Amino acid sequence: MKSPIVSMTNVSKIYGNKEVVKNINLQIERGEIFALLGHNGAGKSTLIKLFTGLIEKSAGEIKINGIEITPFQKKAKQLFSYLPEIMSLYPHLTAKETVHFFAELQNLPKKNEDEVLEIVGLSEYKHQKVGNFSKGMTQRMGFAIALLPKSPLLILDEPTSGLDPFWAIQFKKVIKHLNEEGTTIIFASHILSEVEDLADRVGIMSDGELVALGSIPELKKNAKDEVKIKVLFYKPISFSEFKSKLPNSIETQKDTYIISCKYDDKINVLKALQTFGNIKDIEIKEITLEDIYQEILNKRYELLDEEGENNL
Questions:
Q1: Where are the alpha helices (DSSP H) in the chain?
Q2: Is 110 helix (H, G, I), strand (E, B) or coil?
Q3: What's the whole-model pTM score?
């Protein structure tokens, strides 16, 4: 059995009197796309800075590829590439000079430089100074630098920040392609659609804690919210006849029946619907990551409110 590429055990970070990361236990497997999801200030960026060795942990143990991570440790930093949320570049260097500078620092082959500029769509701007780049172009420049060493682990903090819709879509295509070639991807985001489209597993953070962890199907399975299936018939069917074959919660809306069911029961409902011969249309409204995220945070805030009342 392969060991995880990233392992965190009882990891905490305290700034002054505030604990911004609280007792995190997390393992990230090789070859997966793992997303950290949470609102601004949830602790995502701090957690990423901890396992990239940019800041020192207050407690716990962090390992990448079996090597313990501490600040300024060169050996561990050769195991991954990192794109920070805000990318600072030398404004008087051109795009070509910038990637060459970072390639030289890492003793990387020159052919990588043109490759990464091509991937992020900056080849035609390679002789322009990066100080004149837009926010989106600067972000793509940072992504190019992160791609230079072709690391087995790519760590990205809010990677689509500042990107226009076209390049946000292109970014996702690049991530999926890299992952298919074996790269492990870890990224932090507060964009729910981006996480749902990319991630194999999701860790949801709130107030420095990991409050939920699992694949999208696992999170959907455990959600309180239900799948809604709308059915429209060519010829009306009586409610009693419809209800006799479907024991689920059913509502009516004009000529449409709306069935509510748990995520795991969706296939059984669809099989039952096949016994009716005159279905005109079926519409399925799945549980979304937005539903799950909202449900988890609502539960958490309810618990915090209860604890606050009990402490009064």
A1: 44-51, 74-77, 95-105, 111-119, 135-147, 165-180, 192-198, 216-221, 239-245, 266-273, 289-310
A2: coil
A3: 0.85
